[in-house]
Amino acid sequence: MGYKSIAIDGPSGAGKSTLARKVAQAMGYLYVDTGAIYRTLGLAALRRKVDPENGEAVIPLLDQVSIDLRHGADGLQHMYLDGEDVSAAIREPEVSRYASGVSAIPEVRAFLMEMQRDLARRNNVVMDGRDIGTVVLPQADVKIFLTARAEDRARRRYEELRERGSEVDYQTVLKDLLARDEKDTHRAAAPLRQAAGAVVLDTTGKNLEESFRLVLDAVEKGVGA
């Protein structure tokens, strides 16, 4: 029997990472946060003052920087940029814009996609992102499109950032989220969209535990657990 793969896609702030991580823990699967990989390259561009939407400037970074994904003793995914653990740094608001920019470049997506597919070939995985079910793992055993109203997603992101000590205001977070939605759904390379055969789950108004049960039930039905 081959390894099982669960693809969870959806817009920014939908709770993909948190819920995918919890589902992976419950199922005993490897969790892969693909957005963190793009955020790491986005951070590299930010630190080097490279325009994230300039492909000619970004593509050389693929050979210049080292991006590594490791799972620590805590079972969590950690991202390393040139040997530095940047798992916290990539979550800063400014990195989101850079991540969105670099992820729209076809050469970047092709380069990083093999890293993601290789993990799925060697493990049972729960993988989240924006094009997992449509591009990265189109043959995934279960495909979920996770969404929620923009206001709900912005509130969750705002609270998350405040807990980390970031000085942000809700309206700015909402504005940035809507801009990210627009860019992700209209980009030429692997735009955000619902995969064929995906189960659509809306977590608007639901707390973390309610959302988790919703996703876990869909996954268990899909893999026959």
From TrEMBL:
Subcellular location: Cytoplasm
Pfam families per record: Cytidylate_kin
GO annotations of cellular component type: cytosol
All residue ranges annotated as the Cytidylate kinase domain in the record: 6-220
Enzyme Commission code(s) on record: 2.7.4.25
Catalytic reactions of this protein: dCMP + ATP = dCDP + ADP; CMP + ATP = CDP + ADP
Keywords: ATP-binding, Cytoplasm, Kinase, Nucleotide-binding, Transferase
Residues given in the record as ATP binding sites: G10, P11, S12, G13, A14, G15, K16, S17, T18
Any one GO molecular-function label of the UniProt entry: dCMP kinase activity
Superkingdom assignment: Bacteria
Family of this protein: Belongs to the cytidylate kinase family. Type 1 subfamily.
Designated name of the protein: Cytidylate kinase
Main location (coarse class): cytoplasm
SUPFAM superfamilies: P-loop containing nucleoside triphosphate hydrolases
Gene Ontology biological-process annotations: nucleobase-containing small molecule interconversion; pyrimidine nucleotide metabolic process
